[in-house]
Design goal:
mainly alpha, 13 helices, single chain, MetI-like fold, 3-stranded antiparallel sheet
């Protein structure tokens, strides 16, 4: 028999003073999930950034008097200029041009030399030029600058961001409605029904999405409608396969058998027993599908199969901006930054939801 040193132990009696320390607080599933989500700093930051971008996409086009398709040739190719911020020497309406020193004729009213150097024996200078002062636009401000036709980039960028959020919402809706329904029916029914439904999925997967979009463009005009139909036709495949595999695993569990024994119908079992057990994984996968859908729309617009000018989307703005990147980088910078932020933050949010909803991540 083992002998213990009683001096190393202290006997504690339960009373009102230590009752809180002895009792364990039982949190609900939602509270526990929210607690673990808050601990993921990346996911929280991602959610905040998405909220900020969504806010500006809703009110940004109304923050000035310009329309996204308003052509103002007198304001073409103006760099960004923001009040107050311009006093810090950034976003002050200037661009830097490289010239040979022999040919550089500096007008001190709106130009100044910022750097001198020699390249292959030639004396070169970098000249900072304030285009607003050069053209006499003292009281004119374009926060994101203008494009080659003088259209306000601020209005066009946030209008294009609306298209990205529309695609994100559409991707989640397609996954939740078509993907879940198709996968549940296929997995729960099994047998010949499952075989036929999976052969249909394999046929659709065998056709590249770009080919489907191209065929739709031949029938319809290039634009948002063709992209929407392409997502409806192919965007639910991945979700349906995941849901099917989960249903095949769950339908053999004892609680499903008990529910069926008690007289529950197939629809009741699917809605009340199976769906709640896979909803977390479904939600996470829907979030992961959003960045790919946003990039897909931007890529199609970039190659000319999506929205067409003067309509604005991030892909259209990037397609227009990269042609002038060496002289007017602002035309490409802002839409690229917004697109990158959306893709990054949605991935961070999906990672946070996955960790928060996964029971294996729960702290002991």
């Amino acid at each position: 028999m083992l002998n213990y040193d009683k001096s190393r132990f202290e006997r504690i009696f339960r009373d009102s003073s230590n009752e809180r320390e002895i009792l364990v607080h039982n949190a609900s599933f939602f509270q526990d999930t929210l607690k673990r989500f808050k601990k993921n700093k990346g996911a929280v930051v991602g959610l905040i950034v998405i909220t900020i971008v969504l806010f500006f996409s809703l009110i940004g086009p109304f923050m000035n008097s310009y329309k996204y398709d308003q052509v103002m040739t007198e304001y073409e190719k103006l760099p960004p200029r923001i009040p107050i911020v311009e006093k810090l020497g950034i976003l002050d309406g200037t661009i830097v041009e490289t010239k040979t020193k022999a040919r550089a004729k500096i007008n001190p009213d709106y130009e100044r030399i910022v750097k001198e150097y020699v390249v292959n024996g030639k004396e070169m200078v970098d000249v900072e030029r304030n285009i607003y002062k050069e053209k006499g636009f003292d009281d004119v401000y374009f926060w994101f600058g203008t494009d080659t036709l003088g259209r306000d980039q601020w209005t066009r960028v946030w209008t294009g961001t609306r298209v990205s959020f529309y695609i994100a919402f559409l991707a989640v809706l397609i996954d939740m409605v078509i993907g879940i329904t198709y996968g549940m029916i296929s997995g729960y029914k099994g047998g010949r029904t499952d075989t036929i439904m999976q052969r249909v999925v394999e046929i659709i997967v065998g056709i590249p999405r770009l080919v489907i979009v191209t065929l739709l463009v031949l029938v319809l005009n290039p634009g948002l409608m063709s992209i929407t139909l392409a997502l409806i036709l192919t965007g639910w495949i991945g979700m349906s396969r995941v849901v099917r595999s989960q249903v095949l695993k769950l339908k053999s569990f004892e609680f499903i058998l008990a529910s069926r024994t008690l007289g529950s119908s197939d629809s009741q079992i699917i809605i009340k027993d199976i769906l709640p057990n896979i909803f977390g994984q479904v939600l996470v996968m829907s979030m992961f599908s959003v960045p790919s859908a946003i990039f897909y729309e931007s890529f199609l617009a970039f190659i000319g199969l999506g929205l067409q000018p003067p309509m604005a989307s991030l892909g259209v703005l990037i397609s227009d901006g990269y042609k002038s990147i060496m002289v007017y980088p602002h035309m490409l910078l802002f839409p690229v930054v917004i697109l990158a932020l959306l893709m990054l933050t949605f991935n961070l949010l999906a990672d946070g939801l996955r960790d928060a909803l996964d029971p294996k991540m729960k702290e002991e």
